[in-house]
Amino acid sequence: MDHSFPIRVYYEDTDMAGIVYYANYLRYIERARSDWVRALGVDQNAMRERDGVVFVVRRVEADYLAPAKFDDELTVRTSTTSVSGARLNMHQEVWRGETLLFQAEVLVVCVTEAGGPARLPANIRQKLH
Fold this sequence. Notes:
- By secondary structure, the chain is α+β, with helices and mostly antiparallel strands.
- It has helices at about 20-40, 45-50, 120-129; strands at about 5-10, 55-65, 75-85, 85-95, 100-110.
């Protein structure tokens, strides 16, 4: 399932040069992933309470291609590239109109609340395949 999530750049998102501070792109793609999971019908609080597992980001490989600036309207595009028993590989991009500004490969894993490895719940794997 591909997902699109709109973001507007606020003044607080920018640095002294007036461009989006690099770490905020990670916040943008996190918001988009959370919205994507919600759109799948997954309640992460219920998953934690019922299954005792949570999603965590294990690795991010990011490319900053062009700057975003105050008041830009951006779109975060998220797609799944592969799903295994406990891993979810995703590709995320941040666009301003037709211009690609940022892209990342994100590895999300499932862990117990104590931090040990866990399998993705079966109902979630089914939704992702």
